[in-house]
Amino acid sequence: MSDSKNQKIPEINFNPELFNNVFWHLQRSVDNHLIRYIWVYGGSSASKTFSVVQLLVIKMLQGPNENSLILRKFAVDIRDSIYSDFKTVITDWGLAELFTIQQNYIQCKTGSYVRFRGLDDSEKIKGIAGFKRVVLEEISQFDEVDLKQIRKRLRGQSGQQIIGIFNPISEEHWIKVNVFDKEVLTEQECDIGGMWVNASGNLVIMKTNYLDNKYIVGPHFVDQHVIDDFEKDKIDDFDYYNVYGLGNWGRLRTGGEFWKDFNTNLHVKPNESNQLFDPSRPIHMVWDKNVRPYQPCALWQIKIDGPKKYITQFDEIAFPDPRNRVRYVLEAFVAKYPHTLVKGLFVYGDRTAISEDSTKEKGENMFTEIIGALRNYHPTLRMQSVNPSVVQSGKFVNACYRANEGGIHVTIGNNCKKSIHDYQYALEDAEGGLQKKRITDKVTGISYEEFGHFSDCKRYIFTVAFGAEYQTFLKSGKATKITSGKAFSKNIY
After folding, report:
1. Is 404 exposed, middle or buried, given 0-12, 13-18 or 19+ CB atoms closer than 10 A?
2. Less CB within 10 Å around the terminal CB: N or C of the chain?
3. Stretch 351-374: mean pLDDT, rounded?
4. Which domains are seen in the chain, by residue range?
């Protein structure tokens, strides 16, 4: 730490052309002491981190007590990321004489400083009360408990703020589910990808992407190579373009996915107002025997048009603990789809759940409970004598995604968020089956299989509803032939 006394630095006028539009929104938010949380997310080449760095350098120049703590999940990532950006800004602006730059520490002659830490450091997030701001770079790598600890420890002076910067990697990420989705947000007029403020006015969200960067698309400079690269991603890898180009919530394909041919750009369609549901057609309800992370129930419909067959997942019900029980799912289904409006109901699911359940009365199981509760719908239970081979049924569904195998066209409603999350993140094991990796809840200590539950539901309905097509697929040489149980394919559309 520098021993020099705090100095007052003459006001410096910066060329406005140095800054992208997101900078000015950040500046207004940082200067508004009613705002506690500032979230900046979006694509790459969007100037998210760089704009935050520019702002913090200017704040340090303005006087003392503008101290910031910069956190990364791992200390090893600091040097080549935001720390490097600070050094670049200071050097490029010709301000090197006004700053002392040490390893993981930069101090301005005003006395204000920034310190850099990884959450794997021994000190972690202790002693942060003296900072005006805490910046969490790549906060999507953090655990939710990290943010909770920071919120509690950042106290003791007015105007303290938490700034989170990240790429939106998954709609099921805790940032989306437990922060954004729990706020009542009002969209603001802006000149970037999007901006929202919560009801209490203490949280602001900014979304930006490369299209907002004047040093990429102009008018200051046009980087045609970067633009061409994004345009190529748009065609060759839309999931990547969706996240790192447009800055939308999504998932990157990294290899090893079980649903190799599931493509959100092709197979996921808008369904915010449930327009994919056709009340003139039966509902196909599919269950997996599971309670954690939720009790899954997928709702599908099927339409036959000549040689073409259209299967659409229009809804899902997936309650976490403590509502992760069959009866709560049934209550939700009945409330949303009363029997007077449903033109037939077919029930599918995990064959192992049809065995007698020791927690129920003699002779009862999961499906006797379901059929009994839905008797007003006159449901029909459709199930194979054994569950289908994971490997072969997975190949069959992938062929439907890839090439409309058997004339089957697949659509998933974008409201089926947990299902889509499962279809994107379910991985293949060494034998070609679904990898059922277990994780442990950090709060409850309970372990469970994170992915594969809605994926299993999908395999059940495809191999029963399209039993004839599945058998043809197995015999065609496109998959290893196996012996399967009896399949049903008539009178269910």
Report:
1. middle
2. N
3. 78
4. 16-212 (3.40.50.300), 264-475 (3.30.420)
* Residue type present at position 28: R
- All residues at 6 or more sequence positions from 46 whose CB lies less than 8 Å from its CB, including other chains: 22, 208, 209, 210, 212, 213, 247
pLDDT digits (tens, 9 = 90+) for 274-331: 999 999 999 999 999 888 899 999 999 999 999 999 999 999 999 988 898 999 999 9
Distance from C-alpha of 396 to C-alpha of 455, rounded to nearest angstrom: 13
Could you tell me the sign of the dihedral formed by the alpha carbons of 175, 178, 181, 186, in that order?
negative
Residue type, 128: I
**Euclidean distance between CA atoms 108 and 100, whole angstroms:** 6
Q: What is the rounded CA–CA span in Å between residue 40 and residue 229?
A: 23
| CA separation for the pair 445, 390 (Å, rounded) | 29
- Radius of gyration of the chain from Cα atoms? 27
Phi, psi of 325 (to 5 degrees): -130, 155
User: What contacts 284, CB < 8 A, 6 or more positions away?
Assistant: 299, 300, 301, 302, 346, 348, 461, 465, 492
DSSP state for residue 183 in the 8-state scheme: S
Q: What is the DSSP letter of 427?
A: B
φ/ψ (deg, to 5) at 427: -110, 160
**Position 492: which residue type?**
I
Rounded Cα–Cα distance for residues 182 and 200 (Å):
13
Locus of tokens 């373009």: 241
Q: Which residue has the tokens 């679904």?
A: 434
| Residue 384 amino acid letter | Q
